[in-house]
Amino acid sequence: MQLSTKHLLGIRDLTPQDIQLILTTAGHFKEVLQRPVKKVPTLRDITIVNLFYENSTRTRMSFELAEKRLSADVMNFSASASSVSKGETLLDTVNNILSMKVDMVVMRHSASGAPHFLAKHIPASIVNAGDGINEHPTQALLDAFSIQEKLGSLEGKKIALIGDIMHSRVALSNIYLLKKMGAEVMVAGPPTLIPKYMKESFDVEVEYNLQKALEWCDVANVLRIQLERQNQVLFSSLREYNLAYGVKREVLDKLKKEIVIMHPGPINRGVELDSDVADSKQSIILQQVENGVAVRMAVLYLLAGGNANAN
């Protein structure tokens, strides 16, 4: 089996079969990562450039490690230290990189749709590592892989996305993926951080009460408050947000069941998530980071034309 697409621009473009293929292949690569020798020669003749126009630590390191584990040749590009700061256009930058015979571009950009624009203009495969407030497909895939690993499947599971839904590309990709794979989805948070069209446009539950959302769900995926994307005041203070919507130990102790806690990182400790919850046995946050490498290895491998029998 192979992917139905040449690029990974968003979860919206993937079929359920594509998603399952990536998750299954990621399982094979996770086994590879447990071996004493964690490197495989799978992408030895492939050159990948990491094109990051936005700051990133986790995603960039995860992609770079995945590429090196697959034995690809890796080039790192940072917009702040390049000709972009001198006014070079996106297309000129990429064409210059492609003249160096690059096979794949992993791209993060602050403009929604930037990877889609590139995919129309250049022959290399494009992997979207986050575009504006649109999508972050590999984060949704690693979240799904982590849930599947913990609970056995996605179908029929109740997943609550809690926090800054309005500015979160992680939320959008998660909603697309979870709905395609048969999970039930709820978005929860203050009314000012949840777009009014969520219920009608995405067929998800909407809840403004944190306790009710936690009572409903099997998994709480807690999202970061993205102050850098907010150009107006959407809640009174971080302390007030924590009081109303922070996931705390005492809130979880009131539940009649134990739920799984997730967070895409980086965590604002003491705001959306308290430390005693983030570091508890209910949390699979560190597993998400570990699974990110296996999932990104699977994506790169499959886009390079690999089949499901990776070993």
List the keywords.
single chain; 311 residues; alpha/beta; Rossmann fold; five-stranded parallel beta sheet; four-stranded parallel beta sheet; 12 helices; 9 strands; 14% strand
User: What general outline do the C-alpha atoms trace?
Assistant: globular
The CATH homologous superfamily of the largest domain is called Aspartate/ornithine carbamoyltransferase
Question: Tally of extended strands?
Answer: 9
Q: Could you tell me the strand content as a percent range?
A: 5-15%
> In angstroms, what separates the terminal alpha carbons?
15 Å
What CATH architecture of the largest domain do you see? 3-Layer(aba) Sandwich
The helix-strand sequence is: HEHEHEHEHEHEHEHEHHEHH
CATH-derived topology of the largest domain: Rossmann fold
Return the structural class.
alpha/beta
Largest sheet: 5 strands, parallel
Write the layout of secondary structure elements.
Blueprint: H1 16-33, E1 47-52, H2 58-69, E2 73-78, H3 90-98, E3 104-109, H4 114-121, E4 125-131, H5 137-151, E5 158-162, H6 169-180, E6 184-188, H7 198-202, E7 205-207, H8 210-216, E8 219-222, H9 238-245, H10 249-253, E9 260-262, H11 275-278, H12 285-303
Parallel strand pairs: 1-2, 1-3, 3-4, 5-6, 5-8, 6-7, 8-9
Helix pairs in contact: 1-5, 1-12, 2-12, 5-6, 5-12
